[in-house]
């Protein structure tokens, strides 16, 4: 074997050794963990940082430990009061145990998605439509609790579950719009009736004051004359003199009944 061939073999061997060493060096960032298997047996999670993996004998699986955002597709659900709706949600979760996420389930992301879909249909199907629309926060907490309990054996922590959109049938939307309009009309009528009641009470109080203090009627009479004089009205009003209605005021203050004056019969002159 010549020197040239020997040097070539030596260079090739050095290159192979260098490639093996380079493949053994692993760098894992802060947001990942490397789950190590040696001859098929779980060794554990390593990282972050730099470490060596024995080629051929050891294998590393990278697991992202950051929070993952997942959109749950639209699900068609029948509520407890037999209303067919379409609902979707958003899910936030992260891996807290990389060893379990790799060894306990084949694909933890897909498995979490499937669990989220079935749980969403189950929970929404157990409530009425009004409860779903009015108590959204309560439904979200229930979804988060159930999904978190089901994914905990996989090393998954579900932090937030939010129901995004609830799509109603067209006939149900029209019915709810009519109901809202009727509710607004009801409130308006109640407010108007309350105002009328307060006004009638104020008039009754004023009548009691006038009955107890007849002089207040005279003051009101003079105030009305002053207002007529100040305003430039095109209509001229001639109020009755106060002396004309004074007997009625005095009778009211004494609690007597005032009889209307009878006209004198006219005498015919022949």
Helix content: 40-55%
Written as H for each helix and E for each strand, in order along the chain, the element string is HEEEEEEEHHHHEHHH
Query: Which spans have pLDDT < 50 for at least 5 consecutive residues?
Result: 263-270
- Number of strand elements: 8
Total count of domains: 3
Q: Please state roughly what percent of the residues sit in beta strands, choosing from under 5%, 5-15%, 15-25%, 25-35%, 35-45% or over 45%.
A: 15-25%
Mean pLDDT: 81
What is the fold-level CATH name, i.e. the topology of the largest domain? Tetrahydropterin Synthase, Chain A
Count of separate DSSP helical elements: 8
Write structural notes for this entry:
The protein is of the alpha+beta class and 270 residues long. It has 3 domains: 45 residues, no CATH class; 106 residues, Tetrahydropterin Synthase, Chain A, CATH 3.30.479.30; 75 residues. Helices cover 51% and strands 23% of the residues. The protein contains 8 helices and 8 strands; from the N terminus they run αβββββββααααβααα. The strands form 3 sheets. A 3-stranded antiparallel β-sheet has the order 3-2-5. Strands 6-7-8 form a 3-stranded antiparallel β-sheet, covered by helices on one side. Strand 6 and strand 7 form a beta hairpin. The C terminus is likely disordered. This is Band 7 protein. It holds the Pfam family Band_7. Belongs to the band 7/mec-2 family.
